[in-house]
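quick q for whoever's on today - can somebody do inverse folding on this one?? i tried earlier but teh output was garbage lol. tokens:
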């Protein structure tokens, strides 16, 4: 039984790698927002983002080289709840994320 990915496929990221990636992306987003967000709210946002990524992991892994599609997914799936949690404008949050993420 061979569990390694094919020649041109990347393996699914580990949970640790996903959590660290989510944390970095949100850290960069908060910096670009220029608004103070309490640390406990940031931690809640990271948990929310991590949960959404895990729920859609297969699709995200397939789109790993398409930053625009991933940023579009983030706009639809994550930005609304995160803007409500952090009490910031959703449009501003979307722009900050795209700037930080590169999509």
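ok took a stab at it. sequence:
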């Amino acid at each position: 039984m061979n569990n390694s990915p094919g020649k041109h496929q990347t393996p699914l990221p580990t949970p640790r790698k996903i959590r660290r990636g989510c944390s970095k992306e949100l850290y960069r987003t908060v910096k670009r927002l220029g608004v103070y967000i309490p640390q406990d709210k940031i931690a809640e946002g990271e948990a929310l983002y991590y949960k959404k990524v895990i729920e859609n992991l297969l699709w995200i892994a397939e789109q790993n080289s398409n930053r625009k599609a991933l940023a579009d997914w983030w706009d639809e799936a994550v930005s609304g709840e995160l803007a409500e949690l952090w009490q910031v404008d959703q449009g501003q949050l979307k722009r900050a994320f795209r700037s930080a993420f590169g999509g």
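fwiw The chain has a mean pLDDT of 91. also Residues 15-101 form one domain. so keep that in mind when u check it
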